Amino acid sequence: MSADGLMLAFSKNEVCIPIKLPCRQAKALLNVWEPGCSRCSTTSVVALSRSPRCFSRATSSMNYSRLGAQCSSKSFSEMAPVVQGAVIVIMGVSGSGKTTIGNLLAEAANCAFLDADDFHPDSNKEKMRKGIPLSEEDRMPWLQVLCNALKNRITDGEITVLACSALRKNYREILRSSDPSYVTEKQGSRVKFVLLNVPVEVLADRLNKRLTNGEHFMPPSLLQSQLQLLEIDASEGILQVDATLNPAIIVETVRDSLVQRNIES
Ligand SMILES: Nc1ncnc2c1ncn2[C@@H]1O[C@H](COP(=O)(O)OP(=O)(O)O)[C@@H](O)[C@H]1O
Ligand SMILES: O=C(O)[C@H](O)[C@@H](O)[C@H](O)[C@H](O)COP(=O)(O)O
Fold this sequence. Notes:
265 residues; alpha/beta; three-stranded antiparallel sheet; 8 strands; binds adenosine-5'-diphosphate; ATP binding; nucleotide-binding; gluconokinase activity; ATP-binding; Shikimate/glucono_kinase
């Protein structure tokens, strides 16, 4: 594909017809697809480009999200020809919104959602419930179980959204190593991280409300230890988003950024 070309795949009854078009023509073509148009209910439109610049130019100047709502046009799974076996880890401290955003992202992208909390042994949850931070020894077996689960999904070519605190770089390295082709941190892994940034006062407020509503085992008293542990190494190039925004906007931002970063590479 040429660097300036957009590939459009029109999928109907499971039949894909990939075509290449210059940006301007692609935009013009996609613009005639109005929301509610009867063709949208039976046909999906996928715009893919190996050039992120080209993709963002085309998508930003047409009402792509409106089109997407009708045609589920930007789902990762519809990009299956180029995106196979990938994991998007929504990371951050407790209360940053990992479960909320991870669920919505997976739904929007039509792929599976896993919550790392569901992989903790009861002993870990009991410890946290009592207000005791987990130790390195508590976390290692848990991360290893997660790593194995992700490895199976990557090998099967599945796309997964995982909500996981992944606070330290060495924890993330364990998750990255679930990509069988990942050797060193110098190379890309099919496991990508998105950090949800939320100010401490907002986090405390969210955790207090969540506890009062009896929705979660994690006490607000553990927030400080979580923040102390959070380690972000600029060299990892982790995508960071303002997670105080409306969840729908966060999800849209994450999807757009991942597409622009070419999550398949
Ligand atoms: N973007 C957001 N705006 C407002 N409230 C949010 C947002 N994201 C999450 N919440 C709320 O904050 C609380 C913590 O969110 P949750 O998804 O459970 O975080 P985590 O999984 O990181 O602990 C929940 O009550 C949730 O409804
Ligand atoms: O490594 C850890 O200390 C835990 O994984 C922790 O980071 C996580 O935050 C808790 O499991 C609470 O779950 P939530 O993050 O969903 O509140």
